[in-house]
Amino acid sequence: MATQANSLSYAGCNFLRQRLVLSTLSGRPVKIRKIRARDDNPGLRDFEASFIRLLDKITNGSRIEINQTGTTLYYQPGLLYGGSVEHDCSVLRGIGYYLESLLCLAPFMKHPLKIVLRGVTNDQVDPSVDVLKATALPLLKQFGIDGESFELKIVRRGMPPGGGGEVVFSCPVRKVLKPIQLTDPGKIKRIRGMAYSVRVSPQMANRIVDSARSILNKFIPDIYIYTDHMKGVNSGKSPGFGLSLVAETTSGTFLSAELASNPQGQGAAVLPEDLGRNCAWLLLEEIYRGGCVDSTNQSLALLLMTLGQQDVSKVLLGPLSPYTIEFLRHLKSFFQIMFKIETKPCGEELKGGDKVLMTCVGIGFSNLSKTLK
Amino acid sequence: METKDQKKHRKKNSGPKAEKKKKRHLQDLQLGDEEDARKRNPKAFAVQSAVRMARSFHRTQDLKTKKHHIPVVDRTPLEPPPIVVVVMGPPKVGKSTLIQCLIRNFTRQKLTEIRGPVTIVSGKKRRLTIIECGCDINMMIDLAKVADLVLMLIDASFGFEMETFEFLNICQVHGFPKIMGVLTHLDSFKHNKQLKKTKKRLKHRFWTEVYPGAKLFYLSGMVHGEYQNQEIHNLGRFITVMKFRPLTWQTSHPYVLADRMEDLTNPEDIRTNIKCDRKVSLYGYLRGAHLKNKSQIHMPGVGDFAVSDISFLPDPCALPEQQKKRCLNEKEKLVYAPLSGVGGVLYDKDAVYVDLGGSHGFQDEVGPTHELVQSLISTHSTIDAKMASSRVTLFSDSKPLGSEDIDNQGLLMPKEEKQMDLKTGRMRRKAIFGDEDESGDSDDEENDEISEDDELENGSSDEEAEEEENAEMTDQYMAGKGVKRRKLEELEEDSEMDLPAFADSDDDLERSSAEEGEAEEADESSEEEDCTAGEGGISGSKAVGEGSKAGLSPANHQSDRVNLEKSLLMKKAALPTSDSGHCTAEEAFASEDESEESSSLGAEEEDSENEEAVRKKLSKPSQVSSGQKLGPRNLIDETSDIEDLLKEEEDYKEENNDSKETSGALKWKEDLSRKAAEAFLRQQQAAPNLRKLIYGTVAEDNEEEDGDTREELGGLFRVNQPDRECKHKADSLDCSRFLVEAPHDWDLEEVMNSIRDCFVTGKWEDDKDAAKVLAEDEELYGDFEDLETGDVHKGKSDSDTQNEEVEKEVKEEIDPNEEESAKKKHLDKKRKLKEMFDAEYDEGESTYFDDLKGEMQKQAQLNRAEFEDQDDEARVQYEGFRPGMYVRVEIENVPCEFVQNFDPHYPIILGGLGNSEGNVGYVQMRLKKHRWYKKILKSRDPIIFSVGWRRFQTIPLYYIEDHNGRQRLLKYTPQHMHCGAAFWGPITPQGTGFLAIQSVSGIMPDFRIAATGVVLDLDKSIKIVKKLKLTGFPYKIFKNTSFIKGMFNSALEVAKFEGAVIRTVSGIRGQIKKALRAPEGAFRASFEDKLLMSDIVFMRTWYPVSIPAFYNPVTSLLKAVGEKDTWSGMRTTGQLRLAHGVRLKANKDSLYKPILRQKKHFNSLHIPKALQKALPFKNKPKTQAKAGKVPKDRRRPAVIREPHERKILALLDALSTVHSQKMKKAKEQRHLHNKEHFRAKQKEEEEKLKRQKDLRKKLFRIQGQKERRNQKSSLKGAEGQLQ
């Protein structure tokens, strides 16, 4: 069969995750060339290698070829297998880096996925596990991925550079997804948050909470920010603190913002008050952007819309992030799917910036891995 | 006689008449008043038994629930594709005749030779595609997959044939389409009774196969070689009103039953290499699901391909538009069968084919396109070919551009693109002026209108001119050129339509330029005439005339040159606008702008007045356009552009700044707000272009990335490909977070206010605002009293009613009458509320099933409504080509045999494949040998499967699942049981049915379908195992422990099996303990009992088997015409052996031999001494113990003699020998002597005895005589004495 013919080719290591995830879901092989070819340190980094290893663990029959220098990667996807898996993530990137892709793949496994991920739970680059738990999981529930076993548990918290965090993610398997119509974001009825601190004074969390509340109280009184101080083995290997905020609306959409302290030994020390305030501002920015889906989860929502039945799905988003834009292009090349994009100008209403209404017809994807009993 | 025949009148017992009579009767009895029996006789309907009632209720509920199907979203398109009617039957049963009759019935046309599918309009809302199916099993399988309705012809004079049953079974596996039996040859029955019996017999057999009550049609006989009209008419009615159930496979996969095929290969390639791979285009109605461009398809009988291009064509057999009348008129009864040569005009994407062979009526029927077609006939190449060959050079140094360059982009121009961009202009301006300046906004709108008006004028005048020209052209020049011109001009029109959308950025300049444009357009068109027709003189003069008409006085001589350039440019620009796909419209506009610039540059020479304006225009739009071109590539670039834009609005900015400075705000804050404004602008800018931004630039990696691709597109247009900066971006951080580049200052009140309404504390929409909704409710339902609390709620009423109420309240105490009326009012209100509640409650009581159904219905509505208002070009991009469209599918790299051996009788199906259905892997299925198939199937024998769209040969392994989930290999399929089958082949979704056949070639006497089943699982590895027994032998036996050897070869192997269970043949169980050092591979094992040396120890293990990776698609369509049913693939070993005459070498050990039993030797019984002692004497062994060996001391030594002694001994020996000899002799003599003596003595004795005997005899005689005498004497004496 002409598997070689319908393979896709890309250059550069950016958007590596999207490409590999979409390749796995669509069954089309992908070749990525010139990975940091001009760099002093060419080839794949540790965290990317770790990601590829993770893919290898959760699939069956994947073929991965990497050249000597690591600048070229050929990936021929197998079938998603799932089951109980453990994985040590690289500490260069947060667990969120890996978890985002797992969220895309987990509903389409042969056996329900139950994975233990170890590494950095909260860092400044990737969406933290807290945020994903608060925003991505409810989003998946909208698509009919639900059940008792659907959970994300933070066992240990690990901050960069040491890591040492542990997360358990389990997800049930679905054969088909439901189409969604998320066009009304609703109004924000409450704001919740989690101020965490590990290997620093527990007072830090309280200071963060106070400063964040002082900003948000101007908008809504229903705010509760939990403080989470982990001790002993649960506190990972490095000190740090941070805050993640989630705004919930009346129609059940979640918008989030987060901020973490600088890793130990890198950059200037951050005052918890500043961090709290900045994070609150970030949340307001996110609210300004608006939409029914958080800016980090835009691509996840669009992917699951694509993989739905041959029905129309709609979602209202804030401005599209560069990552999402690239993701849309990839969706087109992997699934030949184009979204109808309509801008909804903000108008006179005081509801933040412009919104984008994304509409598509699902490709009629069905889980080919799931066994028929 | 007649009176005899008359039937007696029978009273009606049912029906309306009988009912009426009954009613009248009841009325006569004065019972009719009670309309309901229930009322009339209530006792009869009273509850007799609660249990029985409950049961009957249960039963009805059960029956109701049984009817439920899982609701599915209704995805049938508004204009469905024709229904595929497969006419199937064994040869000589009357298939072709039936098809001919049906076509004649529907269309009043007679088709003599039918090849391939025939599409006809059968009713106002229904079309049919009729296709014939012979008894080639390949064809049967393929058509069963696409059929909606099967007409199964059965020769009643013969009865059912095997093909019929085979086809029924094929249908059952691949989703069961509607099946209608048609009995033919009924006229061969002479006796009526025989006919009736046969009909009944066949009907019942048919029912058992399909379902009880399935329709079986009778075609009684032929009249002039055709079936009877009335019967055919009835059959046609049946077909047209038939309803269909959606079939899972068909609704989830797009497919095309091709009714036309064209070879598009370059003839030169064929000439050089006749075997080269072909490029073909296939035409047909798309059915099933949406088909996307570039997707994977499978052609049964040919192989897998990727769609290289797909486009939709006008429907060749369209349904009538208006449905005023009940039936179709003759014109609307269309028939379309290009393979049979029906349907005179064939439209293609780029050409129109006219079948001129002997046709006389077509020319009138063509209608509006008549002219076009006429003109086409005279040309020798198609429009597209000409377009392709035309080349344009924009700049002197650039490469000439051909249409293929533009086509290469693979882009199509949808109209809505323009609308969007029209919008773009407005959006952009709004962003610049913002909310502050509304007057400016309104100004702009005015300008817009004006420019649009101008445009309209432009357009109309242009059109007029064109029409005139066309008239001339048709008269004067060759028609082909005229056609070409028209197309070009149409394109121009398009482009001109686009102009104002962009030009509205300038105000007063616009009008002048538009006017200019008008003049220039006229010139340009005349210019073009020059180029195409080459009749400069006439047209030149005409151009002058037109130019003067426009009201300007240009120096024609100079402007002509410029205009020529411009027209070329326009042409250039127009091309991509029409042909480009997603998003080049923006670029096109940019280029148009440029062209306009150039034109205005030309005008500059004459119009010194406009100079300034032109300058301005030059500077500004060029920047805009460049910004737009680069915009998506790089955000930073864009911002810089916007900054430029912003400069123009500096006034406003400065005002702002001033205010801020005066208020004494911080410096950085001011910068911040500017940044925020920029970000805002950027977003505004980006939003309308999103589509282009996203889909315009596809960062796919081309091999010849560096520069080559750009040149390919010809100098002017550049594909928005990742630049050097983008290359940098290609290696940047992979992160999904959307960082805030320019944060707002959330301390500012207005910034804070901008999101106020996002919170529940903010303002709500009118329909959701609680206060407003309440108010509305009050208005609706007025005042009411809360009965629990006793509060009286009063609604707001109109002023006068309020007054009235006030008055009432005042009066209340005075007037008791009023009070009563108020009470009544109150009661009325309560009743109304109750009714409302009841209604709500009843409606709300919906089951889960109803909810689900409602949800599906809603989704279906949404699906239909979402893209309804868009034109097809745009729709196709979003949802793919929808079913019901007539599409043209281009496929490359098709084997040349497909074209060379093309046989229109065989169906060509393009089956769309889902995601990763083109990949291969291990497929596991549940399989059952067909009960009518005579043999059982053997593992590793190649067999042909039909799964999904595909037919292919593969090597399956059969297995059965043990209770613990182990999949154990089977050598053969079970006779009457399901088993598993696993093979390596294409991945097909779970739940897909399949069938297996041993061979597709020729006709086998028996039933051909070997097995059927369903796909269960797909994977990249399998776990089928076979049994393996390892044996070993004890070489040392202790009590329960033994040392075993011969089972393994090394200690390592033993280590792997430590703890494994082993067993002896006699049934003693044990366990492997540890490897031993001494013989390699030996181990210590412990058992539950002591072993014997003669025991054999074995271990049961499982060995994984591998499946041969063999997948061979059945390429039956590639065979030569007439040999299409002779495809044969890999042969089984049995067939090979038979063909080569190789006999199987039997294993010697497996042969049967006579059993030879060895004599068993038992050891003697040994009784221990102690036991012997204890035994009673009777049981003691009696045999004396053997004398033991003589002890050494008692043995006598050997004597060695001296020679002398030896001599003596020898002498003595000799003497004794002599003596003994003598003695012996003597003994013998004596013995003889004795014998003699004994004999003599015996003789003597005998004689003596004889003598004694005689003597005794004598004596006894004498004695007797004496006695007698004595007796005599005594008698005498006594007598005497007595005397």
TrEMBL record, chain A:
It comes from the Eukaryota. SUPFAM superfamilies: EPT/RTPC-like. The keyword Nucleus applies. Residues 183-287 form the RNA 3'-terminal phosphate cyclase insert domain. Pfam families: RTC, RTC_insert. One of its GO terms (molecular function) is RNA endonuclease activity. Residues 10-341 form the RNA 3'-terminal phosphate cyclase domain. One of its GO terms (cellular component) is small-subunit processome. Keywords: Nucleus, Ribosome biogenesis. The keyword Nucleus applies. InterPro entries: RNA3'-term_phos_cycl_insert, RNA3'_phos_cyclase_dom, RNA3'_phos_cyclase_dom_sf, RNA3'_term_phos_cyc, RNA3'_term_phos_cyc_type_2, RNA3'_term_phos_cycl-like_CS, RNA3'P_cycl/enolpyr_Trfase_a/b, RPTC_insert. Belongs to the RNA 3'-terminal cyclase family. Type 2 subfamily. Part of the small subunit (SSU) processome, composed of more than 70 proteins and the RNA chaperone small nucleolar RNA (snoRNA) U3. Interacts with BMS1. This is RNA 3'-terminal phosphate cyclase-like protein. It comes from Macaca mulatta. The lineage of its organism: Eukaryota, Metazoa, Chordata, Craniata, Vertebrata. The gene is RCL1.
From TrEMBL, chain B:
GO terms for biological process: ribosomal small subunit biogenesis. One of its GO terms (molecular function) is ATP binding. Residues 434-472, 504-532, 589-611, 638-653 have a biased composition (Acidic residues). Residues 80-245 form the Bms1-type G domain. Keywords: ATP-binding, GTP-binding, Hydrolase, Nucleotide-binding, Nucleus, Phosphoprotein, Ribosome biogenesis. GO terms for cellular component: nucleoplasm; small-subunit processome. Pfam families: AARP2CN, RIBIOP_C. It catalyses: GTP + H2O = GDP + phosphate + H(+). The keyword NAD does not apply. Residues 1-25, 1250-1260 have a biased composition (Basic residues). Residues 1-42, 397-668, 788-826, 1179-1203, 1220-1283 are annotated as: Disordered. It is found in: Nucleus, Nucleolus. Residues 414-424, 654-668, 790-799, 1229-1249 have a biased composition (Basic and acidic residues). InterPro entries: AARP2CN, Bms1/Tsr1, Bms1_N, BMS1_TSR1_C, G_Bms1/Tsr1_dom, P-loop_NTPase. Gene3D superfamilies: P-loop containing nucleotide triphosphate hydrolases. Belongs to the TRAFAC class translation factor GTPase superfamily. Bms1-like GTPase family. BMS1 subfamily. This is Ribosome biogenesis protein BMS1 homolog.
